[in-house]
Design brief:
The chain is α+β, with helices and mostly antiparallel strands. It contains seven helices and 14 strands. Strands 1, 2, 3, 4, 10 and 11 form a six-stranded mixed β-sheet that branches. Strands 5, 6, 7, 8, 9 and 14 form a six-stranded mixed β-sheet that branches. α1 packs parallel to α3.
């Protein structure tokens, strides 16, 4: 039996919908590219399939060695090998959202207004989702690197065992030290507002020269000359339940995390009849890829179109580099 009768399908009012999206996106896209010092990048590029893979030649171990002047013997050839970086596609649905036409008439409006409002709301939610996915992936990937580097403890510094457990400039220094001689490659910090304001308060209480007045009047705490992306994103906050909450502070290199709008967003709507009232229904879908510098997505363990829990699982991000200093950055754990 045929379903309820509907009006003819038609695309949502594109000028209104995309005007709403553009109005929001133009304001917040800076949180990714320039505002983060290029640490978190947002690009638009079509990607076919569920993964994007990029191969590279790995460093040859022991490529330079001592030459024995007293020997003419043979030596074993060194091999050149390849590895790959892999990012993963996340598929998203918009709606469906439905509203009676009568409701719009009663407030002196119409479905065009609905299109504009939805465009703004979807844009805000998309950007928040992009940010959460990027930070979720970065925290998971970096937290899994627990060996190697200048201090042989990988890319994680746990400040919760220190006398001062909240974020201080000294903790930032300790985090940077995990990158050794490549600490300058960390171009930006990403943190929850709680450790950010702790950092401001600690800079004041410690009376860091040239910082206290800047904190109060300039709004810039002692961040070792790097910009700070302050965002209350769930991946940066670990709910301790009955215990003390902890926070992940990330120091990211340029291109440390990437969000790629990899499929064109499709938005469609229809006027639905056959009910007590006519109503306007909107539904859409899109996809984006997330990747972390120097890591490959575990296509076996993590799989296709992963859940948030899978993206946040450290073992689903595998380091493709021999040296941790070639990866996305560092993580500092504070209270």
């Amino acid at each position: 039996m045929a379903g309820p009768g509907t009006g003819a399908d038609f695309k949502i009012f594109e000028p209104q919908y995309y005007a709403g999206q553009y109005e929001v996106l133009s304001r917040v896209v800076g949180a990714f590219n320039a505002a983060s010092g290029g640490a978190i990048t947002l690009v638009n590029q079509s990607v076919i399939g569920n993964y994007e893979k990029e191969s590279f030649l790995k460093d040859v171990a022991n490529i330079i060695g001592r030459r024995n002047l007293a020997s003419v013997g043979t030596v074993e050839d060194l091999l050149m090998t390849m590895d790959e970086w892999v990012n993963v596609k996340l598929n998203r649905r918009i709606g469906p959202i439905a509203q009676t036409l009568d409701a719009w008439r009663k407030i002196g409006s119409n479905a065009q207004e609905m299109s504009f409002v939805l465009g703004k709301q979807v844009a805000m939610k998309k950007m928040a989702d992009y940010a959460d996915a990027a930070l979720m992936a970065a925290v998971a990937a970096i937290s899994g690197v627990t060996t190697g580097g200048p201090k042989a403890i990988g890319l994680n510094y746990d400040a919760t065992g220190q006398t001062t457990k909240t974020l201080t400039p000294a903790h930032l220094v300790q985090g940077l030290s995990l990158m050794g001689d490549r600490a300058a490659q960390v171009v930006a910090w990403a943190m929850h507002s709680k450790p950010f304001f702790d950092l401001v308060g600690n800079a004041l209480s410690e009376k860091i020269y040239g910082e206290a007045n800047v904190v109060v009047y300039g709004g810039a705490p002692g961040t070792l000359g790097r910009p700070v992306l302050v965002i209350d994103s769930p991946p940066l906050h670990n709910d301790g339940g009955s215990l003390t909450d902890t926070y992940n502070v990330l120091g990211l290199v340029a291109g440390g995390v990437m969000i790629k709008e990899s499929e064109r967003e499709e938005i469609y709507s229809r006027v639905v009849d056959g009910h007590e009232q006519l109503f306007f229904r909107v539904q859409g879908e899109y996809a984006f890829n997330v990747g972390v510098k120097g890591f490959r997505w575990n296509t076996v363990g993590g799989g296709v179109n992963p859940t948030d829990a899978a993206v946040a699982t450290a073992t689903n991000w595998v380091s493709a580099m021999l040296d941790p200093k070639d990866l996305a950055g560092v993580r500092i754990l504070v209270q």
